[in-house]
Amino acid sequence: MKYVESTLLPGERIVCEGHPCFWAMGPRVTLSLLLMVWGVLIGTVGTSPLAAVSFFAAGLGLFGASLLAWWTTEFAVTNKRVVARFGAVRRHTVELTLARIESVRIEQSLIGRIFDYGSLVVGGGGLIATPIPGISSPHEFRRMVFLAQAAEEPVSLRLVA
């Protein structure tokens, strides 16, 4: 959690940390393993060593890209903001103050519902809806955003006449 901790403001503390879900990367990891196995199978037959090396290298590269995406994704809810960073080559950072967030939508596939992961789409007044992909336990993360918003709101005074 290096990026989030480095952007904390004075008096700000982390309320909840989110984690990427490895199941969300399942299709890419499966494809990379299939490519590597296919490369080994072609290599053992010995018909085309260049094709074998190409398939294995493509699978290894895809697997490395999946691990890199896993390691470079971090997000948290603080008592003042939602902070997220994901991507290594094309880095995306999201820092939204809690006061500007109006909606937090969860997008899940069937597999995402089974393995409890999904994407959060955070939107607010005048803000472009910002997706944060592959979050583990997205309902809990959304709940923490709303709890942090409720704790930040000033108490309204009622005047009795």
From TrEMBL:
Species assigned in the record: Paraburkholderia silvatlantica
Parts of the chain that traverse the membrane: 21-44, 50-71
YdbS-like PH domain residues: 70-131
InterPro entries tied to this protein: YdbS-like_PH
Name of this chain's protein: YdbS-like PH domain-containing protein
Keywords: Membrane, Transmembrane, Transmembrane helix
